[in-house]
């Protein structure tokens, strides 16, 4: 089985508890107004990679305690992410997932691939980004309607309470700057003004 991804980071400290790998999936059917990554929306773009290859890459990374799935919309590729999640969980990795769907809608969907995927998730951050409710005061959330769901006993509120919103900035060999994490756009402007 293949997964269509937009981006993969082997180690990050701003996409969930502890050090984690992070996969941004390609394709999003939700399409929130002012989404920060509209380039992840088209399903016919991105890079196709087999679940087995991705799992092997991740299992070879030292130091990480888990993986985060974000996007794009992870539940649009629930079957492949369930398979990947199963392999990683067998090795003790934790799974954090962002989704634009609401947990209740996932549970009531009657879609078994969604329910299966849910069963391997430890921490779910749900609900669409609502521009009019933009709120950058909490970690891992961009609007006040988004919620944390601790779906196993792996994590709890304490694992997030010490964290503020943070970003990572990487300067690649070709001079290209990449950025991930969450931060208020006003603070982001201040950071970039300080860099130049
Ligand atoms: S669900 Fe996520 S990726 Fe999709 S439009 Fe909303 S914020 Fe963007």
The outline comes out as globular
Q: What is the N-to-C succession of helices and strands?
A: EEEHEHEHHEEHEEH
Strand content: 25-35%
| Widest beta sheet: strand line-up | 3-1-2-4-5-6-7
| Distinct small molecules bound, one entry per kind | iron/sulfur cluster
Instruction: Specify the structural class.
Output: alpha/beta
Radius of gyration from the CA trace?
Answer: 16 Å
Number of strands: 9
Find the CATH topology.
TIM Barrel
CATH architecture: Alpha-Beta Barrel
Overall pLDDT metric: 93
At the fourth level of CATH, the homologous superfamily is Aldolase class I
Main β sheet profile: 7 strands, mixed
User: In percent, how helical is the residue content?
Assistant: 25-40%
Which consecutive residue ranges, at least 5 long each, have pLDDT under 50? none
List the total number of helices.
Answer: 6
Distance between the termini: 44 Å
Summed up, the domain count is: 1
CATH class: Alpha Beta
């Amino acid at each position: 089985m293949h997964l269509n991804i937009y981006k993969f980071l082997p180690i990050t400290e701003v996409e969930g508890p502890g050090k984690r790998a992070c996969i941004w999936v390609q394709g999003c059917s939700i399409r929130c107004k002012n989404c920060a990554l509209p380039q992840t929306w088209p399903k016919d773009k991105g890079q196709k990679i087999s679940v087995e290859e991705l799992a092997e890459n991740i299992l070879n990374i030292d130091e990480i305690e888990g993986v985060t799935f974000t996007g794009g919309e992870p539940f649009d590729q629930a079957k492949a992410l369930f398979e990947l999640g199963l392999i990683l969980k067998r090795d003790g990795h934790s799974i954090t997932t962002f989704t634009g769907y609401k947990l209740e809608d996932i549970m009531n969907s009657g879609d078994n691939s969604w329910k299966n995927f849910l069963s391997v998730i430890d921490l779910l951050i749900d609900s669409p980004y609502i521009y009019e409710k933009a709120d950058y005061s909490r970690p891992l959330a961009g609007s006040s309607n988004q919620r944390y769901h601790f779906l196993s006993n792996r994590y709890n509120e304490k694992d997030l309470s010490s964290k503020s919103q943070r970003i990572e900035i990487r300067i690649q060999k070709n001079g290209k700057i990449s950025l991930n994490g969450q931060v208020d756009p006003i603070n982001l402007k201040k950071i970039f003004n300080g860099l130049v």
